Amino acid sequence: MSAVLAGRRREFVSALRRRVDAVAATGGGGGCVVVTAEAGGGKSHSLRAAAAESPVTVSWATASELSWRKPYSVVGDLLGVEVPDPLPPDADRLFLERLDRLVALGPHVFVVDDAHHADAASLATMALIADVARMLPVALIVARRPEPVREYLVRLAARPDVETVVVPPLDGMDVDVLVHERLAAWPGTRLRSALATTGGHPLSAQTMLDDLGRRELLIRDADGVDIPMGVDAASAPTLAESVEARLDPVGSGARDVLLRLAVWGGPAALEDLAALVAVPAAAVVAPVQELLEADLVAFDDHGRLEVTHDTIADAVCERTARPLRDVVHRAIADFVGESDPVARAHHLRAAGAEPGETVVAVQAAARRLETVPAVAADVLAGGAGPFGGAGVAAEATALSVERALALARSGQLAQADEVARDALSVAGDVDAIARLIRVRMFALTVRGARDEVLEMIEETLTFPLPEVSRRIITDHRSYVRLLGGAGPIPLEPYVDTVGELSLTGLVAEALRSCLTGATFAAVEYAAEASRRFMTEEASDSSEGASADLWPPFIEMYHRGPKAAAESRLEMARRQADRGTGWQGTYHQLISGSIELLRGNLADSVAIYDAAFEKVATGEEAVSSLAYGGRAMIDVMTGDLAGAEHRVQLWDDDRIGYGHLLHQFGIPQIARVRMLTAEARRSHRTAAHLAGEVWSGAMSQHCFSWAAMVAPEIVRIAIRAVDEDLVTQVAADLATLPRPLGPATTDAVRLAEAMASAEPSAVVEVASDVARRATRTEDFALIVSGWEEAAVAAAVDGRKTEAIDHARAALRTVEDAGADGWRSRILSRMRGAGVRVTTSGTRRRPDTGWDSLTPTEAQVTELVALGLSGPDIAGRLFMSPRTVQTHVSHVLGKLGLRTRVELAAAASGREPRLVR
């Protein structure tokens, strides 16, 4: 039966209930709500009322003070999955697969109470549930207190698709109902006035009622209840005082059990509570019964004992002298022993154990949590405490290093930097100092804080450092300058002998070679860096940490998009094996760029948008190449206003929470402005911008990128009749280092032919380039080849050939949904005096099976085979978030509501080949 509610609180609960009911009524995403309230503020009661008699399935989990140090414990309860011990590296798959199965069954509401106590791994998984809740008939409701502040909860609440609400205080009507629920009578005037002093705090109001009842000051009259005249409401006890009063009558045996339970920190088995004092479980039956009757404890669904409210545990610990609590903590640490190193470390630290013993225990706990660095970082927080002594200080610093690394590995970059910075202020060991500096460099680099990193490096290099650390830091300086576009890219190698480079230096040299046109060498260096990464004995994860990130990027400039996609699959396999999950967003952004180059625009959008949604609430830098790539798709599809809006956001620095990274100094954003101006037929403006883009790329020594965009620069110059720019591009192309990589050779051939202004030569070269680009899946080069061949043939008077080439270009762009490019091709053909009808071209429909992109079709076939979202993500080497985006798009195109319906509909169709 639903709870009876009234007033302001009723309105609040009704709003939550409408969200729950809408999941079943509309079949759409119920979204995510983060509910905040102080202790005793009524959040749990509100959640129960909102979920009561729900027409959809509701799964519920409540975190306890134990939860934060037990990886996946909360999400395991929420999804009904037993957490494996030990945790495998891919433990999250178990929970994502279960989530996938639950969602496939139909509308579902997930409720997490007291999420401020939840472990970091569970909190990270909640973000994935929130992704699902945006698209499918699922709702996620998360309740928390303002303190303690949890990083992943802050990120969840900061998402634009997440609603954050504060539980309102009880108003007069709500208080009346509360009194009626507890006393089966309505409050009189004096009782109302007394309860008004609680400020609408539910637990305080209940506490006052309990106190008045114990003092026999509640006077009943028919269906009403009041207090005598002259009772001073201000004399009523505080919440803490009331809890203390409830504890006073409890016998010593029951108080002892309650203390053990409070210090335990969460639900505990009776056998364990008894074993702490070496007595049989039967010996605690009577004391526990006394606690049950006093409503101080209760049994949870698993038969474990727990306090009925956190304030009770707080009061018990507060009234117990610290040395006595320490004894209980020590007893628990000894009881759990090596079977639970995380709990042992926590209780030893709380017991004030010897520093050396505590450090060893914390290190053992961190090793147990190696696969869940976010939880390890929480366990490492506090280290060995503020202990004196040089040896202990060194051990405490070592723990700080490990915590900083764990924070960095889990994407908590600002905290990683803060921990490392604080540890540096007290560290005395030279090697520890070097490691902490490298952690700071790593965190700041990922955040895109180029200038801060370079300043820190210059200062650090003035100190005496171990030679290995000096070499790594020096090479990191080269990497940061290159990545952040701090000056022209060096034309000469960083060192005479590549073997002298650290792993970070080898990565930097691979990128330098790639960007300056030496792509053959770049591929070799990148392969060697990837091979060396995680095979050498490295002191921390910052050394060469991006080695697996760059091979696909380099292949885009060497052998083209198809080879880059193949390399990306290989790197994805290594990412899973090597525990470099922090790179997931960057791998996604590179994947989005690869799919853009292949012309899979819808898939590219899905990948880009999923990655940028994560970046928007994270701390990673926003890359200009990826962000510009997303804006490029707007231009290609004809959404010029969208492209201009994205560029404006970039100019105003209103993207994400980190820095904007002008990657390698490549003028990608300026390129978007240039192409937008061309699409708006502002040809002189476009040519002016093209000149800036070209000169910027050449002066930055971004020769490979310049070679790839050369055809569009020449095209814009020709359309604006800017002969000087055409001449300049042709001259610069002749100076590019040879041999060119396969991916850039044909782009340069096409641009040089266009600059020659010989129509017959352009037709021959351009059509050959288009055919060759088909093999490398270079969409832009395919289109440019057929487009330039068509225009040149028209100018040369070869109308039939011009129409054939134009239709080849149109088929390519229409199949990709590039309406903006379609308009450009038709406009140029009309300008050349040839009208091209599109009856011979085909266009992917907006709905139905034929509307699915190749990736969407693959995802659909795998759904039909019964694979879960994580299985599909693993098979196709993409993130679960991206898989869910594809599933949502497919459901929308096919007019379906659930994965079950999709699987049923797809199972009867002849499948395409799934690679």
Automatic annotation (TrEMBL):
Keywords: ATP-binding, Nucleotide-binding. GO terms for molecular function: adenylate cyclase activity; ATP binding; ATP hydrolysis activity; DNA binding. It comes from the Bacteria. This is Putative LuxR family transcriptional regulator. One of its GO terms (biological process) is regulation of DNA-templated transcription. Residues 845-910 form the HTH luxR-type domain. GO terms for cellular component: cytoplasm. Pfam families: AAA_22, GerE. CDD domains: LuxR_C_like. InterPro entries: AAA_22, P-loop_NTPase, Sig_transdc_resp-reg_C-effctor, Tscrpt_reg_LuxR_C, WH-like_DNA-bd_sf. The lineage of its organism: Bacteria, Bacillati, Actinomycetota, Actinomycetes, Mycobacteriales. It comes from Gordonia soli NBRC 108243.
